[in-house]
Amino acid sequence: xxxxxxxxxxxxxxxxxxxxxxxxxxxxxxxxxxxxxxxxxxxxxxxxxxxxxxxxxxxxxxxxxxxxxxxxxxxxxxxxxxxxxxxxxxxxxxxxxxxxxxxxxxxxxxxxxxxxxxxxxxxxxxxxxxxxxxxxxxxxxxxxxxxxxxxxxxxxxxxxxxxxxxxxxxxxxxxxxxxxxxxxxxxxxxxxxxxxxxxxxxxxxxxxxxxxxxxxxxxxxxxxxxxxxxxxxxxxxxxxxxxxxxxxxxxxxxxxxxxxxxx
Length: 263
Hints:
Elements: H1 2-21, H2 31-48, H3 51-63, H4 72-89, H5 91-100, H6 104-114, H7 119-168, H8 177-228, H9 233-240, H10 249-262
């Protein structure tokens, strides 16, 4: 949601600035420049990265608008409850969790426990998986960082194309020099907008989300091992509290304290 809000604010401020200039609005719209900047940037990205990486990066672009950051507090509570149920009911409790789990990596980790993996094997398997996922998601961010680098360059290319055409007809109609120059600069305008309002920030956000997902995977790995060891819920919360920002840790232990008072 914040991504969409940021883009709307950025575009809104630019449109407001354009309105204040009292210049003809049509000067800021050029489909040929837009096609050159966006198409050229996409073509350069296909040259720089494998097709699968570019397609995966474009899919990640749309996910940015609908996915929020990971909320570790309820997840830790869920892990603590799973450990409690596993201690009482054994494997059947984990089979129910595996069927209902929404996060694929956690579902796979529960499967490792059901299949009889020990703590060392779970750590080795899970650690490899979360590192591979981190590299894959950072590759998605790299696609957009490449696009952020290329967009201004193709904007300049569009400007040069416009200038070449403008200079070729300058002798015939010198009065059109000013408007022709304005149209030529629109391509650079588009390139800077794409680079600094969309591609660059999206790349940074994907990189932050990759790190956040890596932390989530590491927390799941530690939680799975403690589930296997049938640790007490409070012990699990104490150990996993390191993944939670300090100001949110009160929420993590609040429910347990309430239950203790009732008891």
